[in-house]
Write a structure and sequence with these properties.
By secondary structure, the protein is mainly α. The chain has one domain (about 15-295, about 315-350). Helix 5 (about 150-185) runs antiparallel to helix 12. It starts with 14 loop residues before the first helix and ends in a 20-residue tail after the last helix. The relative contact order is 0.16. It has helices at about 15-75, 75-95, 105-125, 130-145, 150-185, 190-200, 200-205, 215-225, 225-230, 235-250, 255-260, 265-275, 280-290, 320-335, 345-350. Its main location: membrane. It is found in: Cell membrane. Keywords: Cell membrane, Glycoprotein, GPI-anchor, Heparan sulfate, Lipoprotein, Membrane, Proteoglycan, Signal. Pfam families: Glypican.
């Protein structure tokens, strides 16, 4: 009653043993593909971790640097500016990690929140009545009168370029892991599991427990079993090219480190521009939002911050070289894996599975 290991000679096998062999080859094939995938998956997961750690470190540095700008140069509004600054960097982080948001909306929302503070603390430091309605009017007016000049748009442009490459790389790395995980659990067809049993276990039914499959026979069986996996070859090669393009983009003009570390400078320039154009802005705001209550008497000089350049924050210290080296090592490794899905059958038939350096092997029917 044997279905797979049919042979003219007497046999040691039963139908139940054949079923056990089919379960064994399915389990073994999953394990062997997982072993092949392990190094590749380890490299990608390692790079995702290194990328996220470096990014979080950069983001913390840039946020601290921006906060220190307000504390040193614009102290009257530092406390109130803390929340908009935090929101800006949270939005940037979410964008990189793939959230459905845009750099432009994050930056413009920040400047919408900043304008009421700049107007009431720096341009007109005597304002005492900053009601919700008046604050909202200032926020909406910002979009029409553009108090920060071209600096807000420049910030959007610079960040969009560098953060886009980082966002795409982050998504691409996650996609790579998803593809590898999916191929590990590819279901074997009934024909494939039967062919594998015939190749690996049918010799046992003849008492030939030490004989192994011939190389060519193994390759034919594996290529048939893994045809759906090897079809990924063209897309995988294209995927590697995309990773290479994105890492080059990040290392070139879209340098994430430079873009994030320059945020404080863009904000400083924008505030200075608004202060220099204070009288014109006040005249426009008075027409649109009305005149708020002013503090009576002379303003103390402590409340007025002179227009000045902020002193340079400490030098941007970050493992920039280390991050660049990691990128180079990673893409070099990934380029070597271009043929990963084209050569799965060859690698599975390599090693202990087949008979090498011997004059005899199993061809599916007999010892040859």
């Amino acid at each position: 009653d044997l279905q797979i290991c049919q042979h003219r000679a007497p046999t040691c096998c039963t139908k139940k043993m054949e079923e056990s062999y089919q379960a064994a080859v399915r389990r073994e094939r999953t394990q062997s593909i997982q072993a092949l995938n392990f190094e590749l998956k380890y490299m990608i997961v390692g790079h995702i971790t290194a990328f996220q750690e470096a990014f979080e470190s950069l983001l913390r540095f840039a946020e601290n640097r921006t906060s220190s700008l307000f504390e040193t140069a614009y102290r009257p509004m530092a406390k109130e500016a803390a929340e908009p600054v935090k929101e800006l960097f949270t939005d940037i982080s979410l964008y990189i990690l793939g959230a459905e948001t845009t750099v432009e909306s994050a930056v413009l929302r920040f400047f919408d929140s900043l304008f009421p503070l700049v107007y009431s603390r720096l341009i007109n430091p005597g304002i005492t009545d900053l009601s919700e309605d008046y604050t909202e009017c200032l926020r909406l007016t910002r979009q029409d009168i553009n108090p920060f000049g071209h600096f807000s748009k420049n910030m959007v442009t610079e960040l969009s370029k560098s953060l886009w490459a980082s966002r795409m790389l982050s998504r691409a790395l996650s996609l790579g892991i998803e593809v590898i995980n999916t191929t590990e659990h590819v279901a074997l067809t009934k024909e494939c599991s039967r062919a594998l049993v015939k190749m690996q276990y049918c010799p046992h039914c003849q008492g030939l427990t030490l004989i192994r499959p011939c190389v060519g026979y193994c390759l034919n069986v594996m290529r048939g079993c893994l045809a759906s996996v090897s079809e990924l070859d063209a897309q995988w090669r294209e995927y590697i090219s995309t990773l290479e393009y994105l890492t080059n983009e990040m290392a070139a003009s879209h340098d994430l480190e430079i873009a994030l570390s320059g945020i404080w400078s863009s904000i400083n320039e924008a505030i200075l521009h608004a202060q220099l154009n204070g009288p014109q802005l006040s005249a426009t705001v008075d027409k649109v939002c009305g005149q708020p209550k002013q503090q009576e008497g002379n303003l103390s000089s402590a409340n007025i911050v002179p227009v000045k350049e902020v002193t340079e924050a400490p030098t941007f210290v970050m493992a920039h070289a280390s991050l660049s080296n990691k990128r180079r090592e990673f893409i070099s490794y990934m380029k070597r894996s271009r043929t990963f899905y084209a050569s799965v059958a060859e690698r599975l038939c390599d090693g202990d599975l087949v008979m090498r350096d011997s004059s005899t092997c199993w061809n599916g029917e007999d010892v040859v």
